[in-house]
């Protein structure tokens, strides 16, 4: 069974794990399965305070930034251009892994997001981070993991996992949100709901993979999966229940891929946290045969 179609056990509730003037790194999500630890990290570099003209003058003069950090875990001739992440074995040797990379930069600084797969090392894993070229020192962080029995018991196919979608309340008024909230710095928040199947029918499922609380905002990631071609550009539509209104959400970001045999999309949404700590989501995907249904998601309070 593909990891993309398997719910894992929440292994870390997120938050910053490294802080340095040149770089901060936080955990966006971490899921443990018998096949390994899926770890998603987000790193940010602050904007360059020198300005474009001074930066170019410094480059011409050979002043390109802080001195490189010392290498102890990285090979001496490693020539990476961005953040490296790996895990330590019992001898303290680092095993550097290469996952998906997504980066962007603007006036607010530089952002890099990566998703990696590490082997499970009960009861914890030592994560190594390095970016010596920008002066970020090698950093090792211990992350506690669920025990083996918990991981094996909690790992389940999205086609078999329980789901509790119900008919939506009668008489709802549907409208679009008056605003699309910007995605907060999700790597600084805490995950307040475990992954779950929101809606499912024959060959189609909608999965809530993450709910991250950042202040009074919630960042959601929703994955729509079908085992056949779907005549639509995107996946499920999501609305949040607010009283007698169903408020349709616009995604902060979305991607989709599919063919004759399968379809998959991922979308991120930002909503305000409900006062009663219960998030009501109305989920519909008519192109995949899923009529509108209500999924109720209880939210925990962010811990330390």
Order of SSEs, N→C?
EEEEEHEEEEEEHEEEEEEEEEEEE
Low-confidence stretches: none
Determine the mean pLDDT: 90
What shape does the CA trace take? globular
Residue share in helix = under 10%
> How many β-strands, per DSSP?
23
**Quaternary structure of the protein:** single chain
What is the SS-derived class? mainly beta
Largest sheet: 6 strands, antiparallel
Distance from first to last alpha carbon: 34 Å
Integer-rounded radius of gyration: 21 Å
Percent strand? over 45%
Describe this structure in words.
With about 300 residues, this protein is mainly beta. Helix content is about 5%, strand content about 50%. The chain has 2 helices and 23 strands. Strands 2, 3, 4, 5, 8 and 9 form a 6-stranded antiparallel sheet that branches. Strand 3 (about 15-20) and strand 4 form a beta hairpin. The longest helix has 9 residues, at about 50-60. The protein is globular and about 65 Å long.
Question: How are the SSEs placed, and which strands pair?
Answer:
Layout: E1 6-7, E2 9-10, E3 15-20, E4 23-33, E5 36-45, H1 52-60, E6 84-88, E7 94-97, E8 100-106, E9 109-118, E10 124-131, E11 136-144, H2 148-154, E12 156-157, E13 173-176, E14 190-193, E15 196-201, E16 204-214, E17 217-226, E18 237-242, E19 245-248, E20 253-258, E21 263-272, E22 278-285, E23 290-298
Parallel strand pairs: 13-19
Antiparallel strand pairs: 1-12, 2-4, 3-4, 4-5, 5-9, 6-7, 6-10, 8-9, 10-11, 14-16, 15-16, 16-17, 17-21, 18-19, 18-22, 20-21, 22-23
Q: Which short descriptors sum up this protein?
A:
single chain, 304 residues, mainly beta, 2 helices, 23 strands, globular
